[in-house]
Amino acid sequence: MQEFTIKQAAKLAGTTTETLRHYDRIGLVKPCQRDKFSGYRYYSQQEIVQLKTIELLKIMDFSLTDIKELLQQKDLSCVIARLKQAEQSADQKIARLKYAKEKIKRARLDYEKKKSAAQGGEEDWFVKHMPKRVILLSDNLERPNLKNLWSYHSHFYEQLNEQQRPKFLFEDAAGMITIKGKTRLFAVCCSFPSLEGLTVLPEGDYLCANCTEENKDQVLQVLLKRAKEAYGARPEFIVHSIVVTGILQWDYQIQLYLQ
Fold first, then answer.
1. What is the rounded CA–CA span in Å between residue 90 and residue 96?
2. DSSP 8-state class, residue 124
3. Is-contact 223 125, C-beta < 8 A?
4. Closest-CA residue to 254 (of 244, 243, 239, 242)
5. Overall pTM > 0.90
6. What is the pLDDT of residues 210-239, one digit of tens each?
């Protein structure tokens, strides 16, 4: 039977020799052999497997007490139930990490865009061709805030009935639209059962400008004037695409349809 020194065992298990000594002291994993003269600990493949299992369970937030109980558990049904619980916990953690990563990524990209714009002297307005967008209007939200942006899509799923929810999928984007003086937040649909109850933003050229919460009204008035004078357009609706600019921060891109 192959045996490993404590240093070798720690390396194979991805931990430290002091951790292995602690496991020995609390009776979690004991070495298969201990030299009675030198006191050196030696570990077999069986202990290595246990050590690797412990490291995985620790990642899933199991305490050492829970891990010890699990390793000593003889009831296989109980072991299976606990491992299923660990899988669910891991799935939840992965989902949270993916969500946090996406928020951080979008913030980084926006800071990079701002840096590039500052260096390149970007125009304060521009024309952008947009594809057709199908949007679901909020039934009551008029303006973005920290609370509704943090879990943005949950609001729109909640206003759908249980039969509709699985049929909808939303883009990772937020916006608000003003039609005939009435403003509502919206979510862009990338999957939906039908157009009933939805609003369609037509494909075409949009006159756009980036702005902040503080100057968006002023920028809008300038953009409306430019749309009328330069393009002869009187937009029937105004879109404010919400641009995440950092952790819990946002700006806007105003979009006016030129037809």
1. 10
2. S
3. yes
4. 239
5. no
6. 998 889 999 999 999 999 999 999 999 999
